[in-house]
Structure of Ribosomal RNA small subunit methyltransferase A:
Amino acid sequence: MEILSSVDLVKKYGFKFTKSLGQNFLTDDSVLDAIVEGAEVDKDDFVIEIGPGVGVLTCRLINKAKSVCAIELDDKLIPILEQELGSCENFELIHGDALKVNFKEIIGDEQSVKVVANLPYYVTTPIISRFLTEGYNFKSLTIMIQKEVAERINGVPRTKAYGALSVFAQYYCDTSIVKRVPAGCFIPQPKVDSIVIKLDKLEKPKVEVDDEKFFFKVVKQAFQMRRKTLWNCMKVLGLEKERLIEAFEEANIDMKRRGETLSIEEFATLANCIYKKTKL
Ligand code: SAM
């Protein structure tokens, strides 16, 4: 199966872009190939694509995967996708909103599910959050997103990029940067550069925590006031001073450190020690 380039398809159908839908179509073949390669799509895979646009990435996925299910919101793109790709037996198109569709139903009993997408930027965080927290059976997300967000997801301690989003993503997944993509690779050109990032879902979260909600509360608190010591950040959790001191001692973490220096393992230890004190 072959398809024209985005530029030619846009011309062929006289397609008019809708800015509010984050429509920046990929024009660079090497980037499209890198996404499919980075996602390691093969003949056993059921691929979910969010936002197929005029279908340039979709076509490559159809050629590699067992089957592809693409979810597109824009009414204007549905007839184009049906015309260009509708004859492929391993392709299903859902006209809907990826923020609302029932992924459990879409995935059904598929065993090797990979999500691949050049995401409209406004859905990045909710889509990642849906896949990481709603318990779907999937192996990986390979997604093109805004550069700064990708760097935060992939951030490591003691760097500016490291924050609550890094800990959140890396609690559930191994993360890696697949490719940096300049704004010139899209029509129309976005204002920012992008990165293709891969999130490989872990079989179980990276660290054991007594209470997930409390763990993320501690992490959020630690980064809410980045320049403050952990002591100042954790004080506001409302634990008695003596108990909080004991928790830091038991966790063997210096309360004068800043949150941005803690690894995920250290965050888990600290959160568990504080949590135990709240239960006394
Ligand atoms: N995959 C194409 C490519 O790489 O050239 C298009 C990517 S473009 C960045 C994002 C696509 O997502 C557009 O086709 C847009 O209409 C679609 N889209 C926007 N919001 C959506 C939503 N909530 N659910 C599904 N698709 C959406």
